[in-house]
Write a structure and sequence with these properties.
The complex is a heterodimer of chains A (about 110) and B (about 120). Chain A has about 110 residues and is an all-beta fold. Chain A is about 0% helix and about 45% strand. Chain B is mostly beta strands. The chains are: A mainly beta (about 110), B mainly beta (about 120). At the A-B interface, β3, β7 and β8 of A face β5, β9 and β10 of B.
Chain lengths: ~110, ~120
């Protein structure tokens, strides 16, 4: 069981907006640690999508956005496209685990 | 160009030892932590631990402490992950990733480890 909780799956039609939640606690997200998001296609390495809660690395479309509030964070994808179908993971740190890195369990995004 | 290139797929028997590698290039290898991340078949990402190549300081996630050993040879910009006695449950894809403050912007292509009798 992951320290950061994500829904196992979300889906949406092309053009729609979807959000993926990442729920933590007072020892990780709520403690002020940054949240980062990764996108992973089958058979490939994860790719950094959002860092520092809401920042996009160069080359990531502005259709992807991140936010954080309290003990939770969210990834929003607007104008959903077929090529967005992938697994998405949130990542932070946890003070109860010697400040070790923690990942969410991952969310499978299906584009209908 | 920043790159992390991992060693190739391995097929081993239970009880055997194994050392896989992750070679960095295009940046100062000794200035960034390298993390190892496990992904079991059909499962999510698990942070195993991290090593700072400059002085080989290591931090392990509790489930992996004592199960694996992380090391680095800064003279050849390479980090390693090793097992002394593999189990079938070690079958997974293993990724190395470069730490940038608190996120991981560069990842290796992954090394598939299969342990089967």
């Amino acid at each position: 069981q992951s320290v950061l909780t994500q829904p196992p799956s979300v889906s949406g039609a092309p053009g729609q907006r979807v959000t993926i939640s990442c729920t933590g606690s007072s020892s990780n997200i709520g403690a002020g640690y940054n949240v980062h998001w990764y996108q992973q296609f089958p058979g490939t390495a994860p790719k950094l999508l959002i860092y520092g809660n809401h920042n996009r690395p160069s080359g990531v479309p502005d259709r992807f956005s991140g936010s954080k509030s309290g003990t939770s964070a969210s990834l929003a994808i607007t104008g959903l496209q077929a090529e967005d179908e992938a697994d998405y993971y949130c990542q932070s740190y946890d003070s109860s685990l010697n400040n070790n890195v923690v990942f969410g369990g991952g969310t499978k995004l299906t584009v209908l | 160009e920043v790159q992390l290139v991992q060693s190739g797929a391995e097929v081993k028997k239970p009880g055997e030892s194994l050392k896989i590698s992750c070679k960095g290039s295009g940046y100062s290898f000794t200035s960034y932590w390298i993390a190892w991340v496990r992904q079991m078949p059909g499962k999510g990402l698990e942070w195993m631990g991290t090593i700072y190549p400059d002085d080989s300081e290591t931090r392990y996630s509790p489930p992996f402490q004592g199960q694996v050993t992380m090391s680095a040879d800064k003279s050849i910009s390479t980090a390693y992950l090793q097992w002394s006695g593999l189990k079938a449950s070690d079958t997974a894809m293993y990724y190395c990733a470069r730490g940038d403050t608190t996120s991981y912007s560069r990842w290796g292509q992954g090394t598939q480890v299969t342990v089967s009798s």
